[in-house]
Amino acid sequence: MTVTTLRLRHLASRIRWYVRELTGESAYDHYVTHTRTHTPEAPLMDRRAFERHRTATREADPREGFRCC
Prior knowledge:
Layout: H1 3-23, H2 27-38, H3 47-60
């Protein structure tokens, strides 16, 4: 591979990382890493259960703002 191709691949990977962090897509990955590091014997929620829990927690918090629908 050429140097230009390597730079473009690196740039694309950094952009992908930034977008995943910005949109919250990486939250489940962070949850899995944290749980495996701090309590390896604890059962993990699957992605769907994690997202439901995350949404319910966010909507129950009055600091997050009012959601009408």
